[in-house]
Amino acid sequence: MDIKSKIILISGPTASGKSNFAVKIAKKIDGEIINADSMQVYKHFMVLTARPTKKEQKNIKHHLYGIINLNKSFSAGQWLNLVIKKIKEIRKRKKIPILVGGTGLYFQSLINGLVKIPNIPLRVRNKARLIQKKEGQKKFYKKVLRLDNKIKDKFDPSDAQRSIRAFEIKYQTKVSMYDWLNKTKSIYNENEFLRIYLDFSRSELIKRIKLRTSKMLQNGAIKEVKKFSAQKIKKDSSVNKVIGVSELKQYLKNKMTLDEVRELIAIRTRQYAKRQATWARSRMISWTKINPNEIPDWIKKINKASLKLDQLI
Hints:
By secondary structure, the protein is α/β, with parallel strands linked by helices. It is built from 13 helices and 6 strands.
């Protein structure tokens, strides 16, 4: 099967250069890029979420970036429905869909499909939210972990929305949210996907994260958070989980110095990258691993005439 029949998936930890790599591939094989990052779907945060720049988007169509209002919730299921439509549209134009991002659950939903979890009664949903509010997220996460130990390392312990969802599903159905997710089938064939994972060494990635954090602060992250703080955003809105928001709010209140903020954002980003790597080790075993330092040579090997990208992996 040549590349024209493929759906290209590009993943990797944060700060690994996925977006830039996707653009280079798209230019070479006449592709269009689709977002697979759960934070880049939101409007407003271009700098803090490292959304592709206008320069990167020039001459290459990008889809599903900055499409959701800040107060709206957005699930993997909603993303999957939009992506299926976009893939169909892109293929209709005789282009190649290239999905890029760091949200493992999004890729899993595309490759394996998403099961329809039974509706959770409102009383159970309210109960979960009440417990979470009463105990606080830290204690609530531990409670959820005792109820469903399969959630361990699957998402950020500070993620209240997913914690509540995991609690209510296991409480009501007696089945783990992740067991439900595994009972799925994709509408695509396994061999339709070309899966690429950018795999920097830990030491190199830490350097890149530190550099990117400094650039974000120089290029408008503070202004983004200042504007964001002036809006009436719900406290439980997913967009509050964007790394750097809470830290820069503290800076704007003169409770932290810029150097402290820079260090804390870098630490949280490294922690996030570690969780992404943990996910990849267990759920992206079959993905082709590429050292990003080898990308220039890798790109040169692509035969634009035959478009046989498969021969590279």
